[in-house]
């Protein structure tokens, strides 16, 4: 059961497939599952602090099953997104169906696209990193690969990190700061890398320039096959997808700050600098992203062996409920500021 439980994560793409297959009220299947049913289940079902033994960790690290579950999300992502474009461009959808499918597809881009890309982006094999970049393309957020790995993990829980929310900062202002700040940071980080390796900025060696070209080709392809409606839809669902990511960033680090040491450097990153959630359903659906404290403590740990660490700060709710709460800043501040 410990090995096969992650099959339940496929309920999310299944909901999107059923939504496009059956339409009508089913068009809202993915948003309702994500932000209604899942929060309720997470509050009802028990949380789990269980960690694996060293022997179990070694076994899970060498079990291909856990990697396969990630890889299969790539064709699912592109299949769902392209099917959505086809429906938008060729079908007479009602406003309710169109809205439900659009939010649902945006959630799929955030959960299947960016979230899986995040996990693969921390791997050390070139082809897994390339798959990560490919999945980020759908979200028009390929710069995340650079900024997250070389910026966010270095500067997390400091004012130098645009993706670490300050105490009292509302999620809407955070969206603007994090989206723009992460883009600017990625350009600076790539420029620094090019200087170090002695390559010109305006060249094929600049990953940020390549990302801009890839994303433009993606949008151009969508326009060629699905017209202006498809192009507009591609932009909208990408925005929904990366705002879902940024909402998760907001929840994961809200108000937590590393101390400045006498040396002028920040203290090392510890499990105390990320909010953790042991809500079992969210752990499964997001491939253990909610065990975020251990991820930042040791970013090379694969999702299947991430641990509960006792001193890590705990969210009172799972990720979906926390995002809903964050969208009402007064309620979020009332719940979270005392925990900070």
Number-wise, the strands total 0
Q: Helical region count?
A: 14
**Helix percentage:** 55-70%
Biggest sheet record: none
Structural class label:
mainly alpha
N/C terminus separation: 35 Å
* Percent of sequence in beta strands: under 5%
Mean pLDDT: 96
Low-confidence stretches: none
The Cα radius of gyration reads 20 Å
Shape field: globular
The arrangement of helices and strands along the chain is: HHHHHHHHHHHHHH
Molecular structure report:
The protein is mainly α and 340 residues long. The chain is built from 14 helices and no strands. The chain is globular and about 65 Å long. The chain starts with 10 loop residues before the first helix and ends with a helix.
Task: List the keywords.
340 residues, mainly alpha, 14 helices, 64% helix, 0% strand
Secondary-structure blueprint:
Blueprint: H1 11-22, H2 29-44, H3 54-61, H4 64-71, H5 73-90, H6 95-121, H7 126-138, H8 143-155, H9 171-197, H10 207-253, H11 280-285, H12 292-297, H13 319-326, H14 329-336
Q: Short description, anyone?
A:
The two termini are 35 Å apart.
């Amino acid at each position: 059961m410990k090995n096969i439980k992650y099959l339940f994560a496929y309920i999310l793409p299944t909901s999107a497939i059923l939504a496009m297959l059956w339409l009508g009220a089913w068009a809202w299947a993915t948003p309702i599952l994500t932000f209604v049913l899942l929060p309720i289940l997470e509050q009802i079902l028990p949380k789990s602090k269980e960690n694996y033994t060293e022997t179990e960790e070694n076994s899970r690290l060498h079990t291909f099953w856990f990697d396969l579950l990630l890889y299969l999300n790539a064709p699912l992502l592109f299949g769902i997104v392209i099917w959505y474009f086809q429906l938008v461009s060729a079908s007479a959808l009602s406003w309710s169906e169109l809205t439900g499918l659009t939010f649902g597809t945006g959630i799929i881009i955030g959960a299947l696209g960016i979230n899986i890309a995040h996990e693969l982006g921390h791997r050390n094999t070139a082809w897994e990193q390339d798959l990560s970049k490919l999945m980020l393309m759908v979200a028009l957020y390929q710069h995340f690969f650079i900024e997250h790995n070389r910026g966010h993990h270095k500067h997390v829980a400091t004012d130098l990190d645009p993706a670490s929310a300050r105490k009292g900062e509302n999620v809407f202002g955070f969206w603007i700061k994090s989206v723009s700040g992460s883009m600017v940071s990625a350009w600076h980080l790539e420029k620094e890398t090019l200087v170090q390796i002695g390559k010109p900025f305006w060249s094929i060696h600049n990953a940020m320039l390549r990302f801009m070209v890839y994303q433009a080709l993606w949008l151009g392809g969508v326009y060629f096959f699905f017209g202006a409606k498809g192009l507009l839809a591609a932009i909208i669902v990408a925005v929904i997808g990366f705002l879902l990511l940024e909402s998760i960033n907001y929840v994961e680090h809200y108000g937590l700050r590393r101390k400045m040491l006498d040396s002028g450097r920040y203290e090392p990153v510890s499990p105390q600098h990320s909010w953790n959630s042991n809500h079992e359903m969210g752990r499964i659906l997001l491939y253990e992203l909610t065990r975020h404290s251990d991820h930042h403590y040791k970013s090379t740990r694969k999702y299947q062996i991430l641990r509960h660490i006792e001193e890590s700060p705990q969210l009172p709710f799972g990720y979906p409920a926390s995002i809903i709460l964050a969208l009402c800043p007064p309620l979020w501040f009332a719940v979270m500021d005392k925990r900070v």
